[in-house]
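Example record used in the benchmark description.
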Amino acid sequence: MRIVVAVATRHGSTREIAEQIAASLSAGLEETGAVAQVVVADAGGVTSFAGCDAAVIGSAVYAGHWLEPARRLVREHRDELACIPVWLFSSGPVAQRTRPGEDPVDVTEVLARSGAREHRLFGGRIDRSVLHFPERAVVAALRVKDGDNRDWPVIRAWGRAIARELSPAPLGDTRQGSGKSV
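Model output (structure tokens):
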């Protein structure tokens, strides 16, 4: 089984989330006896999903939207993604919701194009020392404090949940076609 975890990030925090998802996904599949290769790749560098059995695609969120490399990846590979299970995740945003029920990230188009089974929003990390001037200005205007808001146990649990969905049926499972044990 080959699984790609493709990620778009500006400062590396979202890639760290992708790496944790990949490690948890790999460990979860190993526990079931599945043989899997789980790789983390930059979204802008993925040229095809041919030969992949699943994909997890994620992006940092800026101004309520995914970064362009991740959006482009989904746009350009829509047909390939339609043939495999896909999960999406976002990292951030840093500001609080302004209205009840308002979604802090708009992934409507990405969800529709990817046919993803699920989208998860994880907290991000703010470190002003690595931000560019316009990013620091936005963070200051929103009065966002520096800090790491990534919930590692939740992120790892999600990776394992994906592994459970991808795991082959356990030995002795009679739910597959013939009614006989595998």
